[in-house]
Amino acid sequence: SGEVATFSQSPVGTGMDRLLSNTTTSPASSVDISNTYINSTYDTYLVIFRMTPSGDNVNLNVLFATDGSTFQTGNIYGIKSYRLGEDAGATGFDAGGGWTINSNTIGNDTGESINGYFYLVGANNTAAVSGIHGLCSHINTSGNHRSSAFSGSQITSARDGVVNGLRFNMSTGNIENSEITLYGLDKS
Question: What is the pTM of this model?
């Protein structure tokens, strides 16, 4: 075809496989990725996201499931998030109820949202903690850009849970709309 390769399906075996591309346009209390996509096939995943909250002054939380659909609560998450471009330092906790990835609250006025990416590492490891590591940008309630680098993990007593699902939710209110793309990184 004019020296241009055309594929009837997505190429596989390239080191990174797109597993999910999902857009939601209706408000929801959470957006989930199940064990249909996060399972023993891959140990490391790349998650690219954009979320618009339904309310102002909120945070984006990420929870994990160990059975594909029951998302873990309780103080089993550790996270640190550093405010880039500010002298405010890091925020976070050693044992909280979910990974809060932004270090400043998010607005929901026209054009205000949060976007970013993170790696889920060690999803199938039960001897050591699984973790997330990434960056996000968002717009606060004053229409100002904010960004954060973040890193989180299970606490050690929760390490025996294989991570095979993710849930995104806001600290209060709904997710107005969202886009998520998930890639699995080849083990070899």
Answer: 0.88
